[in-house]
Write a structure and sequence with these properties.
Largest sheet: 9 strands, mixed
CATH superfamily of the largest domain: Metal-dependent hydrolases
CATH class of the largest domain: Alpha Beta
CATH topology of the largest domain: TIM Barrel
Structural class: alpha/beta
Number of helices: 13
CATH architecture of the largest domain: Alpha-Beta Barrel
Distance between the termini: 57 Å
Radius of gyration: 21 Å
Bound molecules: zinc ion
Number of domains: 2
Strand content: 15-25%
């Protein structure tokens, strides 16, 4: 039996396209798209009623472990700079995580993502008190909701040499696990926190693991000026020198943020063709400044950096941030960020994401957004920035399975899961409050 979505404005992101008609899904793939696609006897039919249908969105850089942080207690002392924000807030939160809260965080983050039409998350995880098996816990949380993930554990020396070894081992274990499985649902990258909390040998070890498993390193880079400053003061070399020497600067890698890349850094990043993930709301929240997105040569990824998974909201924030900063970036480049997210996920997962065409993954978002002005490939950016939002997401399929139907989560007692999470979060916050400032 096939599933057919009919009477749709079928949008593609990679490349930007709009086709009126239907989408036929058989198994986990799209098999036909266009005006002649209608349900046959025995097919399940979903009537889009003339609304936009688009591919499941991808979050290009996030931290699912932050999903239970909403409203968490303030640190005992107010941070005065980015390094203190990390030490007082995020590095205490990640130390409070245990296996139960990691899985629950991922499950809640996945539910939030599903409701926003985000079906794949490229995650960057840290839980220093529970490293071994943590990526399996995240996978389990995502699987509870039926989403896809590209996962890694962020290696860092901030919890000692044992933490480095355990982080590398977790990346290696999970990458080996993914390599032995059928492509599609989950894939690994090799995670690294940031160069300023790692020795040269640890950066090189991450790059070597990535090379062995045919992937890249996912690492925070120049989120704040302290990254380069601490590299020079403590590790004897500039940030980009160290990344280049380690072998991390290559197309398969993801550099999170790039907020403080200098002109010379940008030249080297552009020459290497490495991907940079832009996270405008997080950058504003952490007061770290604005990434030079107009000077990055290749398409940029877009991520929420743990502030939910609403890619419509992140796209809109990216646009308004650029306008506010008086940076001239054409609207199409923002749609290209969503396309690049899909491309990065497709490369890791081995399935085509970001387009609704025969052979592509059947990750489909049915909205109730019926545009009141012409919607074409040329006007798509305007509709994505000023029209569509997560509130329009009605029904979501992942790999051909309906996971959200008419705004109801399928196969999961969502209110029950959220109530249970609240108790787990309460216990996690208690642990957090017992962790002293680093
Ligand atoms: Zn991040």
């Amino acid at each position: 039996m096939a599933t057919v979505i009919q009477d749709a404005l079928v949008v593609g992101l990679d490349p930007a396209s709009v086709i009126e008609g239907g989408v036929r899904i058989e198994g986990d793939r799209v098999t036909a798209v266009g005006p002649g696609v209608c349900p046959s006897a025995g097919d399940e039919s979903i009537d889009a009623r003339g609304a936009v249908v688009l591919p499941g969105l991808v979050n290009g850089h996030t931290h699912l472990y932050a999903a239970l942080a909403t409203g968490m207690p303030a640190p005992p002392r107010a941070p005065t700079n980015f390094h203190e924000i990390l030490r007082y807030v995020w590095w205490r939160l990640d130390r409070a995580l245990d296996a139960e809260s990691i899985r629950t965080s991922a499950r809640i983050g996945a539910l939030d993502a599903l409701r926003c039409g985000t079906t794949t998350l490229i995650d960057h995880h840290a839980s220093p008190e529970c490293i071994a098996g943590s990526l399996d816990a995240i996978e389990a949380g995502l699987s509870d909701v039926g989403l896809r993930g590209v996962l890694c554990y962020e290696v860092t020396e901030r919890n000692g040499r044992d933490g480095v070894a355990a982080g590398l081992a977790e990346n290696e274990r999970y990458a080996a696990r993914c390599a032995g499985r059928r492509a599609g649902r989950f894939a690994a990258m090799i995670g690294a926190h940031a160069a300023f909390t790692m020795r040269d040998e640890d950066l090189a070890a991450c790059a070597a693991l990535a090379h062995r498993f045919g992937g890249g390193v996912h690492i925070h880079v120049a989120e704040d000026g302290c990254d380069d400053a601490i590299c020079r003061a403590t590790h004897g070399g500039g940030l980009l020198d160290r990344l280049a020497a380690s072998g991390i600067l290559k197309i398969e890698s993801i550099l999170g943020h790039g907020t403080h890349l200098t002109a010379d850094d940008l030249r080297r990043v552009n020459a290497s063709n490495v991907r940079v993930a832009h996270n405008p709301r997080s950058n504003m929240n952490n007061r770290v400044g604005y990434a030079p997105i107009d000077r990055l040569a290749r398409p940029i990824l877009l991520g929420t950096d743990g502030i939910g998974a609403d890619m419509f909201a992140e796209l809109r924030a990216a646009w308004f941030k650029a306008c506010d900063a008086r940076v001239a970036v054409p609207p199409d480049r923002f749609v290209a960020m969503l396309a690049e997210n899909a491309r990065a996920a497709s490369e890791r997962l081995g399935v085509r994401i970001g387009a609704l065409e025969p052979g592509a993954a059947a990750d489909v978002v049915v909205t109730d957004y019926v545009p009141a002005s012409p919607l074409t490939a040329g006007s798509l950016a305007g509709h994505l920035i000023f029209g569509l939002s997560a509130t329009h997401v009605r029904t979501v399929l992942v790999g051909g399975q309906v996971r959200l139907r008419d705004r109801q989560v399928v196969g999961l007692d969502e209110p029950g899961v959220r109530r249970e999470a609240r108790e787990i979060a309460r216990r996690m916050w208690e642990r957090l409050e017992r962790i002293t400032l680093g």
